[in-house]
Specification:
Strand content of chain A: 15-25%
Helix content of chain A: 25-40%
Structural class of chain A: alpha+beta
CATH superfamily of the largest domain in chain A: Nucleoside Triphosphate Pyrophosphohydrolase
Number of strands of chain A: 9
CATH class of the largest domain in chain A: Alpha Beta
CATH architecture of the largest domain in chain A: Alpha-Beta Complex
Distance between the termini of chain A: 24 Å
Number of helices of chain A: 5
Shape of chain A: elongated
Oligomer: homodimer
Chain lengths: 221, 221
Amino acid sequence: MFGFHGRELKILLVKWKHLGRWSLPGGHVRRDESIDLAAGRVLRERTGLDRIFLQQFHAFGDTDRGEHALRGFSAALGLEGTEQEWMVDRVVSIGYLALVDFAEVAPTPDAFSDECRWWDVREHPPLLFDHDAMIAQALGTLRARASYLPLGRNLLPEKFTMPELQRLYEAVLGHPLDRRNFQKRILDLGFVERLPERKLGGAHRAPYLYRFLPSSATRRV
Amino acid sequence: MFGFHGRELKILLVKWKHLGRWSLPGGHVRRDESIDLAAGRVLRERTGLDRIFLQQFHAFGDTDRGEHALRGFSAALGLEGTEQEWMVDRVVSIGYLALVDFAEVAPTPDAFSDECRWWDVREHPPLLFDHDAMIAQALGTLRARASYLPLGRNLLPEKFTMPELQRLYEAVLGHPLDRRNFQKRILDLGFVERLPERKLGGAHRAPYLYRFLPSSATRRV
DNA sequence: CGTCATTGCGTCCGCAAGACGCAATGTGCT
DNA sequence: AGCACATTGCGTCTTGCGGACGCAATGACG
């Protein structure tokens, strides 16, 4: 779950009870639930948001993904002898990436965690399991898809300025972009429209406000 | 599992015992086996080939993927009352695409099938489960990755002519390409080298033979 | 009211892709 | 043996997009 705030790309992490270490938010697929719906449910439970950009990016199924970190804690976590004891054994995870509006998220821990909050994507504690690698892969996918995805539609508030959108792309891509070429490219992608209003209150010349067009009005690739 | 033969892209299918219908080749992940290794094992069992191009492309996990087609046959297939009875219930599949040299494959049925053979990718029987959709998605992934993947390294024999390589790309992309621009692009991608030999026996001017450079000699993107 | 960083808009250059011309060449037919 | 012909090898021209960069307009602040 990616967010964007103050020039930086953020990820939502949860802190496990008893272990005191952090991991990506996750959950388990119910027997009568599709994996897409399961991902949507987990997203909703952690953020309170629904109907959000959510895309599968990779399945992780190595035999040693670091489940052993849970071994000593299965009793404390209430897993020992229960139906969920497989959690400390072999697990295959299907990774989904979500893009959410930072300001609208209400981070909520799950049954196994006692904290849930945003971290800077470039500066977060080492994670449990193989989740560091998962973040790297999610970022790679995000970068690859950034060229044809209306990123800001989900990561920014409804109205935004061009510099704000540019800082988002810079955070995702990891390198600075030319201000003038960026504006040109975005505009003839046709995803956004310029509003007559300008954003006042900044320290300098007032930039125009923009808004994403409804996806029905934009042609898909 | 994609192959290439006579201007056409091919897929390997298996025909289920008793049901008499076709599906993609597949298998189940063992408890102590990574999903990548499981995919490699299935590939090896169906084709006899090893160490082949194999890439995960999507996980399929809807609740109704057509497992009901197996319902009446679980006894005939030897599943009833066994540990594998879940096969007729809920299954999540992780799709891998493989590129193999058509000429080197020895199609081999598995325990549930009595036939295994190549089909034209544009002309095959309607498949069991959600496998028609899986092929569509695999083809889409293949097309998207065709621009930066040395396709022929796995789908063609060691030596090949430029027109042969072009027909492969046309089969994958689904539309014709300009002969001269194609040659230019391929050559300055730097994946292949021209051999001094020419392929004689054709009806017209003899084309040069080419060979893929070892992947170590080509720079990755 | 002047300073100044920032914004809006435009130009120039280079590269890669697409359209297409032309000469060379191996086969098969007469 | 010679000719017709489809195919191959190689080159040119045009087009569109991205990256580098110039210049005037503008809003806040001292």
